[in-house]
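ok trying this again, last paste got cut off
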Amino acid sequence: MESICSNNLGSPYVIQGLLAIATAVIILARPAIIYYVVAGFLIITGVLDFYFGLATGSAVTAIVCGILIIIFPKLVPYLFGLYLLVVAVLAFMATGLSPAVGLAVLTAIVLLAFPNIIAYTLAVYLLVFGLLVLFRPPLV
């Protein structure tokens, strides 16, 4: 039987990795629509988490933050930073300290400290996150 953590195309991690990379490319190509792209990314990530039965806390946070970004687009850096901190805390409690936890905390700090460079910060985070997810060694 094949593990859900293996890197096959049906894996939720591969789908999330490809979604993160595609979102990073869209943000770099069209930074003017960052609010809609980030809101869509968060809502789709939350729905995927629910569908595949992954972390419920991060799924709820992603969907709520995505909806709030649509309503209040000026709060993107703060809401995405909140989402990253929730994901980092949940990942730390589940797996301990890992590169993904460090990346999420560092990105949240940069977003909260420098909200005017949000497009580049989010694009770099999503690109690195997508590559980490796609090219991580399979968990056995």
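PB: full thing came through this time. The chain has six helices and no strands.
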